[in-house]
Amino acid sequence: ERTFWALQDVTFRLVHGESLAVIGPNGAGKSTLLQALAGIILPSAGGLEVRGQVSGLLQLGAGFDQDLTGRENIMLAGAFLGIDHRDMERRAPGVIDFADIGQFIDAPLKTYSSGMRARLGFAIATSVDPDILLIDEVLATGDQVFRAKSKARVLELARAAKAIVLVTHDMTWVTEFCNRA
User: Fold this and answer.
1) Do 162 and 130 form a contact (C-beta atoms < 8 A)?
2) Residue 54 has pLDDT above 70, yes or no
3) SS3 for 177?
4) Is the pTM of this model over 0.70?
5) Are the C-beta atoms of 167 and 34 separated by less than 8 Å?
6) How far is CA 162 from CA 16, 92, 126, in A?
7) pLDDT tens digits for 21-52?
C-alpha cells in the first residue's frame, strides 16, 4: 500500500497586507492547502499556525441548509462563523443587497440555481471582515456584472490590509492582485 501525500514540504509565512497566490496544476494540493488553513482538515504531520479570524470562499455555500431560506442561511452561516446573532442581523441587509437575488432571499435554498447559491455564499463570506481571506477559484461564478462586483469586493478587502490566500489558474488575477505566488 502506497502513501499519497497531498502536500509535503510546504513552508510559508503570510502577514497582514499580503496577498499570496497559490498556483499549480490540478491535483497539486492547492485546495487541500486552503482546507488546512481553514481548519477543515488537519495536517497528519507538520504544523500549521493561523492567527486571526479566517473566512473562506472555498466551496461557496458549503454548510447551507437546503430547506432554509437564503435569509435564514445567512444567520446560520453567521453562527457557524462564531458571529454574534445581533451583529449578523446588522450585516444581513448588506449581504442580501450584495447577493442581489431578489425575492429568492425568502425562498428555500433548494429552489436556487447554482449561481444564486454562489452569490449568496460569496456575499456572506466577504461580509465578515476576516483577518485572513481564503479564496478558491470562486471569482469565476456568476454573470459578468457579479464577477466585476466580486472582484471589487476582494480588492477592497485586500486594501483593508488583510491577508489573502488565493488559489487560481487566472494569471491576470495573480499579477493584478497578489504580492507573491
Assistant:
1) yes
2) yes
3) helix
4) yes
5) yes
6) 5, 22, 12
7) 999 888 888 888 988 888 888 888 888 888 88
